[in-house]
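dumping this here so i dont lose it
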């Protein structure tokens, strides 16, 4: 499988938010990108978004490295790696991957950015080389957030997984390899667990939507951004580390697990959450908050690398 520095041309299938970020990441590394999307105006929108994102990174945009086609087969045939970011619908994924598999060279990995579909569910549509199909799920925005979840399906080869991990590391990403496929992969499941209890607490009137955001962003979220939940707990245990934490806080934590809520996403709860976020952002333009967030992401990842915490 083609990997690492041998990947010189990337096909990006789908020119939405994720596809534009993948494109910016590849172009920022001097790679050629063949992007494809059947939507009207997709090329112009992609070029504008990529230009903005490379400007954020203080990198030049060489327009000659980016070509566009409405034919996904044409893009796949030219690529050393295919990154798919189409709609999160199984029937669409199956149709796309059948076409990509038919067109791409046999040694080219076909990686989906799917946030929750099992790779086996669309890998089965690939008649030629299903062994090179997998999920490489990035986190928004992919040109800034290092994590990528690499998930193989029932027919995915070790060579395809290793090639994908090697390429992502060569690009400066931090991939993790999931040893088996699960709906939502790993990180979205972790986020869903936190979301569930956050929604429950809001529904019960314990706190507001803004209170939840303040609590996470100014409390555990700061530590999790640096070390993650297990390492953070280990350090909080003093000389005894994780063993001490589990001995003294483990039993009450199990009681908390049993007391966690399981809310339904009722229309009333949806309205509460929507109105809560609207109130939280009142007087703060979302585009401005996003720009400052992205700047903070760049500075935080650079600081973590400088301090050996990446």
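and the seq i came up w/
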């Amino acid at each position: 499988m083609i990997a690492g520095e041998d990947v010189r041309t990337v096909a990006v299938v789908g020119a939405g938010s994720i596809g534009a970020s993948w494109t910016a990441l590849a172009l920022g590394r001097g790679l050629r990108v063949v992007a494809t999307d059947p939507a009207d105006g997709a090329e112009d929108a992609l070029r504008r978004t990529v230009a903005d994102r490379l400007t954020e990174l203080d990198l030049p945009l060489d327009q000659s490295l980016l070509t566009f086609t409405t034919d996904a087969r044409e893009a796949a045939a030219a690529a050393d790696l295919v990154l798919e970011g189409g709609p999160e619908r199984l029937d669409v994924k199956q149709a796309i991957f059948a076409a990509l598999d038919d067109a791409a060279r046999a040694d080219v990995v076909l990686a989906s950015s799917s946030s929750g579909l099992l790779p086996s569910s669309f890998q089965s549509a690939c008649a030629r080389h299903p062994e090179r199909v997998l999920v490489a799920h990035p986190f928004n925005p992919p040109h800034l957030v290092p994590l990528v979840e690499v998930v193989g399906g029932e027919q995915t080869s070790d060579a395809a997984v290793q090639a994908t991990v090697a390429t992502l590391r060569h690009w400066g990403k931090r991939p993790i390899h999931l040893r088996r496929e699960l709906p939502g992969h790993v990180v979205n499941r972790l986020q869903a667990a936190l979301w569930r209890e956050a929604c429950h607490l809001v529904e019960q009137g314990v706190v507001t939507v803004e209170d939840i955001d303040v609590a996470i962003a100014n409390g555990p979220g700061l530590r999790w951004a640096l070390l993650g939940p297990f390492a953070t707990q280990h350090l909080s245990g003093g000389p005894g580390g994780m063993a001490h934490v589990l001995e003294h806080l483990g039993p009450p934590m199990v009681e908390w697990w049993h007391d966690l809520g399981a809310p339904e996403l009722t229309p009333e709860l949806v309205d509460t959450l929507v109105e809560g976020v609207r109130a939280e952002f009142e007087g703060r333009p979302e585009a401005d908050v996003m720009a400052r967030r992205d700047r903070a992401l760049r500075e935080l990842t650079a600081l973590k690398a400088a301090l050996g915490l990446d």
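The radius of gyration is 21 Å.
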